[in-house]
Records
---
Amino acid sequence: MVSTLTTSLADVASSGATLRAFLHGLPGVDRVGADQRAAMLGTRSIKTTAKAHAIDLAISMVDLTTLEGADTPGKVRAMCAKAAHPGDGAPRVAAVCVYPDLVAVAAEALAGSGVKVASVATAFPSGRSSLEVKVSDTALAVAAGADEIDMVIDRGAFLSGDYTKVYEEIVAVKAACGDAHLKVILETGELSTYDNVRRASWLAMLAGADFIKTSTGKVSPAATPSVTLVMLEAVRDFRDRTGRQVGVKPAGGIRTTKDAIKNLVLVNEIAGDEWLTPEWFRLGASSVLNDLLMQRQKLATGRYAGPDYFTLD
Amino acid sequence: MFEYAPAPESRDVVDIKPAYGLFIDGEFVDGSGPSFKTVNPATEEQLAEIATASSDDVDRAVRAARKAFGVWSALPGSERAKYLFRIARIIQERARELAVLETLDNGKPIRESRDVDVPLVAAHFFYYAGWADKLGYAGFGPDPRPLGVAGQVIPWNFPLLMLAWKVAPALATGNTVVLKPAETTPLTALLFADICRQADLPPGVVNIVTGAGETGAAVVAHPDVNKVAFTGSTEVGRLIARAVAGTDKKLTLELGGKAANIVYEDAAIDQAVEGVVNGIFFNQGHVCCAGSRLLVQESIHDELLDALKRRLGTLRLGDPLDKNTDIGAINSAEQLARIRELSDSGEAEGARRWSPACELPERGYWFPPTVFTGVAQSHRVAREEIFGPVLSVLTFRTPAEAVEKANNTPYGLSAGIWTEKGSRILWTAERLRAGVVWANTFNRFDPASPFGGYKESGHGREGGLHGLEAYLDV
């Protein structure tokens, strides 16, 4: 999908000039067309058996998240209990996502459950600190038992055109991750254009991201369907080009079962069903889980239970 | 795998009668010709018996329209507007019923009739309702007068939308109409007749006569018709132009097309692919302005074709009433035969044929989305209007060659340009001889925008301010 380039991808980051030339050589994204396509896919009607399958799949892809200043070990333990056993035979979620200082609590609570522990790092959510601090933030989380690191890119550097700085930070954080998976948060709400979203996606993938993630959840707009669509196109094209598959995680603003299912439709029709597993697609969210559980029960019993039948954790 | 379960729209929202008469002077009356069947092209199941209007019936309809013209044209514009606004609102209220009926009779996916056809129909009535009391400010003098009785003949590809394009401006300007819907898709026009009654439109302002070509010919040839408006094939358009020649009838024709969709190497590829798909596979390619010729710059030919083929693999063909269907049925056995004949000629003349893996239903009229590569300008599939889901792919090397090839057709209805460079859009658009040029989009319609062709794609404009002129004595 990338126009003919003589340099191999390995050399792309060899200088600021080649990196810039590569990213600016990617085909543009037409906003009107991308929005139209995302809106059309939003009209897909997922009913009965397809809906039941989609709800369980969506639950298994949730990164159940709490990222508040008021988080405590007690709050994190409660969320972990829900993550491992959402109830009524629903599958466990993919991961919990917490701040680095609470990773140890989550790791202990989830030991043996199969639910991964993800931690935000690198001066989340703004990313405004030195590389040294970002790397030690990452190392702290990994040492405490994080399986996955959700880092933020330096949007200031990206918007000022310093792609090399963004690239090198991702490479450094990836090194600090060791065996932990690296999700790179683009904060698309601050990148503003879809062209930037596509460039930032490629930049992150070139630097070694295992996942690209839309947002911190602290900036609006967050995971809009159009942005997720552009990122799904990017991972699809990247695999065509390099053979390496990268995951996608929309995060922020996914609140209802409908939102979640729309995301699965996007994955299905843009990247393809090879991405339709928790290994390659995640939903960063918190409140969506209860709505998924409620719709799941409605589908099984034909009735809605009241909200009090679903736990607030 | 994520299989979508069937999600059919309920057909219980429409009540199809076993037989329909003609709508003349505000009443449903029997036709004197032999009745004919209208079928669901997706299943070949009979939907209803339809009356045929003889030339006597057409004469009655024209006389009713003439009588109503006196009353209707004498109403203040603001009063006519009230009726049109009322019709527009009823269309919105009965949108689901209209969409389901359109899909049953035409074969188009419910997603399109629900999200495109019916909303545009309502928008068209709203738009022209707004003009009815402002005609003095439209640039045709302080008090432009209507023409009289308009005879209108419409096609089967957008049955209700084409009705709206014809009826709304005619009524807004004070004319009355005798409209003949297509033989294979009369049902939504007959439901529209019911909407006219519900809106208390004065009898005779709208008359609907059903039948085949002979009925249409009688409408066009009637001596007391002042204005003829036709949308359909260039072949029939020629017959109509001949029939009208030498009379003082005003004529607008909206005919065929063989539009070029030009994709430059610097286009936003993913959206260009969407535009190509939307350009030719929207409404099974039964679109006069369809982008049936893809002109792609040689340097991105392989890349674009790979992306296009991958995308076509995700199109969902099947039950038009299923809300997830992208490609519905071909409207008639006759049209299917024409599409097959032209596609076979493509192969015979040396173009390469490709379709995604897709299962066609056993009953009904179906044709898979089809792409011809290696097409030359001289191939029939590059020159003749197929009016089906068949795309011909040609290449070009320079912008000048793109324009030359795009214009090298007897048609000139529409064209598309795909590039991220604004100056190239303007350069190309200035040189394309087509009535509508879309830039980085395709098949977008709006009642405020005029629509019509160059060359053998017809003459006159429908829609927008320009659309008023065809119905005014100016």
---
Amino acid sequence: MLLLEDVRKTFIEPNGHLLPVLDIPRFALERGEQMVLLGRSGCGKTTLLHCIAGISSVDSGAISLDGVNLARLSEPARDRFRAARMGYVFQTFNLLPAFNALENVLLGMTFARGKRDVVRARQLLDRVGLSHRSTHTPRTMSVGEQQRVAVARALANRPILLLADEPTANIDPANQQRIVDLIRDTCREERISLLMVTHSLEVANQFDRVERLETINRAVGLAVAAAAKSSTSIAAGDSGAAGDSGAASHAGAASHAGAASGGFPNALRGGGSGAAPPPAGGSPGIPADAVPERRREERT
Amino acid sequence: MSLWLIAWRSIRQRGLASLLTAASMALGVMLVVAVLSIMGVIQQSFRTNATLGYNMIIGARGGKLQLTLNTVYYLSTPIENVPYDYYLEFLPRAKRDAERAQSLQAAAQEERAALLELQSLVAAVGGGPALEEGASLSGANEPRSAAAGSDATVPAGASGKNSAVGLAEAVHRLALDAADRRQLDNQRDGRFSQFTKTVVPVGLGDYFGPFRVVATRPVMFDSLRYGERGDRQYVFREGRNFREHSEEHGLFEAVVGATVARERSVRVGDRISVAHGDPDGAGHGEKFTVVGVLAPSGTPNDRAVFINMAGFYLMENHAKPLEKKAASPDAPRESAAEAEARVLAERQARSAVVHDQEHGFFQPLPVEQREVTALLVLTTSPTVTPGLTNVINEGGAAQAVLPVAEIVGLFELFVRPVQTLLLVLTGMICVVSGISILVSIYNSMSDRRHEIAVMRALGASRNTVMGIILLESIMLSLGGGGAGWIAGHALNVAASGPIERETGVSMGFFDVAPPVNLLELLGVESRLSIGISMELLLIPALVALAIAVGFLPALSAYRTDVSRSLGS
């Protein structure tokens, strides 16, 4: 149902150099399938979700959902498609503070179809156990409650794909399992495909399919190499351009994440395969003007 | 959930900033509304009041605008007077005859008083010609030939007699000359009567406190109508209209306007005296009895006192001095004794009037000694008005003025530029208020970028988020504008009192600026006219302003980088 083929995305760093973040030859997710994607910080997990959701565009390749290639859609068409067919649960919930719980759920419907289904919204709030809090604003709710509202909002338009970006990262351990169960059960009941990104091994261990981004994204290795090179330059006293510090931070993040990845259990299928080979197109040293203008996205 | 609600929630989210921004816009709109409606209502009232049942003013030659302001609004000072005869030219034969007969009767009474005085003088000096009272009276009552009284000066023959006889003859001759002048010149309709539906004479120049006194005739309130359509009759809140002559008060009845009654605490039955020349001038001795108080009409008449014109003429300094006929070169000059006799005769005539008033009977002033400040004329048809105006203006004795044209001219020349200047200034205040909306929304964008990104991630298009920002701007602008409209009209009501006191124009809360031709405003040349109040035009103007100032932050929302903003 979800199929990524030869997807590539490159950021332009402040110093003008290109930084490949996604290079995925192939990735697929079946209808109703639930999977977890593990990866180090900065390895492109959120970028991948943004590209799948159509929030960001890819430089090349195809992202097909239910037979529709998002990469070929115009931005307004992607917006409409996302609103109608996808749900998105953010790490920081991202509820709008001016609206109460019910209205936050209805917002997604407004943007998707222009009309709201209050009954459906109330059912969803009931399902996440917040029917008694429907008129409360996010400020008056606990983080666990906020995330449950966010889950209800993501499911409002009966999506076929739910993207969850570290949904338990900001939640206390007591509530983490409740959120995961809620998401998984709902997706299972409504036959919604689930692609969840997480750092939590406890969460990942509950899924039948767990992938490490490094295994499917060949650009991760290039990022690590670029970070290493940048660190060497700083150690040699090269003050460098402003972008060097950005690269250094990437390096730090990548090194840290790499250390963390060493702790992944062997039981995780596809894990620990290391960096993928360099991509055919683009490298940290490629000048920006070597890439067509429409494919660039500056990263600051 | 509508985009309006989303925009409204966003405004509420930033309550204080939104309130201050809207208040800024409200201030600007309040000033615009106040200027528009005050100027507009005054303009409308000026035009409406310029047709208080008449469409032409006849007055002495001079400034047309001064005549209009003085006659319609009781502002400025009178130019001069026109002879009462001119008024008679607007009357049909029957009314002219009545006026003349009344005048002859007055002349006969005057002569009788003079003869009685003469007889007493002759008796006092013990000699002189025997005078038959009956013969003199009959002579005065009959129309006299022009030859009989052609010489108004005292004959030189008096010098051959003793002083008492000379004095008596002089007084006798004066009385006869006065009667001669009052002969009916002919029996005919007035020259302008066939074009005249209603004519109202007014005499101005006196004051009751700060208010103008208008000497006129009862027809003022019996026939004239006021209001925008000219169909409203003057109503007496208390009492009745004054009469030409009443058994109770004779010629000295008065009616006061609503404002005068309120501010001077005047009621029916009060006796008032008026001052001559200016508000602080010397008071006349005669007192008028108030017989009616007008209900408020919103016209300048609320601020005036109306007295019977016949009584007005009998007050001191209101009688026009009789002109001596031009003496022929051969005629002897008036001696000191003769002049003294003439002054004595005039003084006796005055004392007779006072004596009459004190004893409850009155005689009107002869026509020759009357003048009017202006005539309010309603012509029989608008088509005759231009021709009548030309005839009168070419005649030289008086001028005819069309009050509506004068008022419109005044506005075009003076008031409209001032109004335009005020509008520009207040419009600039609105623009500044609009800029404050821009600053407020634009500054909030950095905080709201994350929210916008979330909306985008939920499926809102760039145009949708741009629309939400524009709606916010429009709501702030219209909300502030609505509050400003209410405040502006409240200001109008607050200012209504002083304006009414100064101009006689009253303003209500819902009095809006008068309509303008929309097509003309848009520069479209057409015979069609689409009247719309300038205040209604504020709505599209505010929306346009809101879109203009909201465009920059809306564009910023449009350009929001969702991916980056979601991570912030």
